[in-house]
Amino acid sequence: MQLRSLLLGLLATGAVVSSMWIMFKPGVPQGDSTSAAQTPAAVVSSAPIQDPPKEVLDTIGQLLGSTPPARGNGPGSPSGATISDSGPEPQLDRIFAEIEARRLDAALQLTEGLIQRYPNFRLAYLIKGDLLLARARPISSFGAAQNAPAERVADLREEAFVRLQGYKNKPPADYVPRYLLQMRQDQQYAIVVDTKKARLYLYQNDNGRPRFVADYYVTQGKLGSDKMAEGDKRTPIGVYHVTSSLPREKLADLYGHGAFPLNYPNEWDKRQGRGGSGIWLHGTQSDTFSRPPKASDGCVVLTNQDFDSLGKSVQVGLTPVIISNEIEWLTLDDWNRERQELNKTIETWRADWESLDTDRYLGHYSREFQASGQDYRAFAEQKRQVNSSKTWVKVKLNNLSVFRNPGAEEVVVVTFDQVYESNNLSNTMKKRQYWLRERGHWKIVYEGAA
After folding, report:
1. Contact status, residue 100 vs residue 51, Cβ threshold 8 Å
2. In this structure, what are the phi and psi dihedrals at residue 384, rounded to the nearest 5 degrees?
3. What is the DSSP letter of 216?
4. Which of 15, 178, 336, 419 could form a disulfide bond with 328, CB atoms 3.0-4.6 angstroms apart?
C-alpha cells in the first residue's frame, strides 16, 4: 500500500502542468491546447530541473529494484525474445531509473522520445508535465494536483504501476501457468490473462509443453473481475475460446483494430448462475494509445499495436483464453504430475466406457451432473438402457485438450474429438466435459457437444 500511494510521487503535482498536460487530449492539434504562446514561461524555461525529494527517489528505487531484468528473459522463453520489450515499458523503466539517479534532464529527454514513438500515450504526457514543472519549483507533494480530474490522475498512476510491475516481475523461466495442462497438437498458442497484474501472456504449444512467447499490458472491467451479471462492468474468470474474428471495418472506433469474441458464458458459468454476454478481446479507440487498467465494460482491451501482434497467433475456434484473478505458476515437475494424473483419469473413463461395466462407467460422474436437461439419475437410466443393447463398444479420443479453470473450485475443462463405434451405432463428435474434484476424486459434472 505504501508503494502504491507513493508511486510516481514526482507526477501530478502542479496546477499549471496538470491543466496543461493531464487535460491534454492526444489527437487534438498542438496549437489548440499546448502551443508555446499558451505555455507559462516558467514551465518552458531551461532552468535546471529540481531534484525530487528523497521519499520519491526511495519509492522509485523500490519499484525499479536493485537490478534491471535481463532483456527478453520472460517466463519459459526459449529464445529470450519477448514482445513486451518492444512496448513502452522498457522506456518507462529507463525514465524512472534516471529519476532515481537524479538525472532529471535525461529523464525528460527519454520521455520526449516516448511521446515521439507513442503520440497518444497519456501517461507519457503526465510524466513530461511534471518533469517540466520541476524546472519552476521543487516537487514536494504527492498527488496534490490542482484543477485536474483526480480520477484521471489516479488512473495514470495505476497504469504506470502495473506496467512497470508487470515488466519487472516475471516468473522464472522454468515455471508455467497451472491452467495449460494439455494442448491439442493443432492448438498453436494459448492466452492467459492475469487481471491483478493487468497482463496478458501468450504461450506457444511446444510438443504439448507451453513455452512463453510474449506478454502485454491489458485493461479489464471498470469494477474488476469475477463477472456475474449483464452490465456489472466486470471481466469474467474462466476458460474460454475465441469464437470469431471481427475486423475493424465492421466495428465502432471504440474497439480499435478489431475484436475476438469469447464464448462467455460457458457451461460452467451457467451452472454458477453467471450471466451477461459480449465479452471480447479487442483494441483501443484511435485517439488513445492505451486505457487505464480498469476501464472497460468487461472486455479485455489491448493497445492496437499489441492487438495486431497478438492477432497473428489467434486461431478462431481453437485458441483458449484463460482469464484468472492471479495466475498460479507451477514448476515443470508439478505441472507434469498434474497433467499425468488427469490424463490417467480421462483414460480410465474411456476404458470403463468400452468395458460395458455400466456401474464402473457411471462412477466417473458426479451426482450433481447436469447436461441437456438431464440430471444424474436420468442420465444413468439412459446409459443403462443403451448399454443393454451393446455387445461391444470402441471409443477413441483424438485432439485432447485439458485446461484447469482458475478460481477456488477445482475444475478442469476437457475437450476432444470422440470417435464412437459399437455393434449397432457409430458416430463422431467434438465433446467438452467439465470435471470437478469431489472429495479427492475427479468427477464429470457436465458433458456435451463443443
Report:
1. no
2. -65, -40
3. E
4. 178
Provide φ and ψ at 156, rounded to 5°. Answer: -70, -40
Is 245 in contact with 260 (CB distance < 8 Å)?
yes
- pLDDT category of residue 408 using cuts at 50, 70 and 90: confident
- Cell triple for 100: 532515481
- What separation in angstroms does the CA of 400 have from each of 144, 153, 183? 56, 47, 7
Which amino acid, residue 158?
E
The answer to whether the beta carbons of residues 230 and 277 sit under 8 Å apart is yes
How high is the pLDDT of residue 136?
A: 75
Write down the number of H helices and E strands in the chain.
Answer: 14, 20
Neighbouring C-beta atoms of residue 428, cutoff 10 Å: 12
Model confidence at 139, in pLDDT bands (50, 70, 90)? low
Per the CB < 8 A criterion, the answer to whether 256 and 231 are in contact is no
Which residues lie across from 402 on neighbouring strands?
182, 414
CA atoms of 54 and 76, how far apart (whole Å): 37
Query: What is the biggest distance separating any 2 CA atoms in the chain, rounded to whole angstroms?
Result: 92
User: Containing H/E element for 416?
Assistant: strand 411-422
Q: Give the Cβ contact number of residue 347 at 10 Å.
A: 12
Q: Which helix (H) or strand (E) holds 113?
A: helix 104-117
Neighbours of 207 (CB within 10 A): 7
The pLDDT confidence band at residue 152, using thresholds 50, 70 and 90, is confident
User: What average pLDDT is seen over the chain?
Assistant: 84
Q: What pLDDT is recorded for position 154?
A: 87
- In angstroms, the CA 398 to CA 429 distance is 10
Position 54 scores a pLDDT of: 53
Q: State pTM to two decimals.
A: 0.83
pLDDT at 84: 53
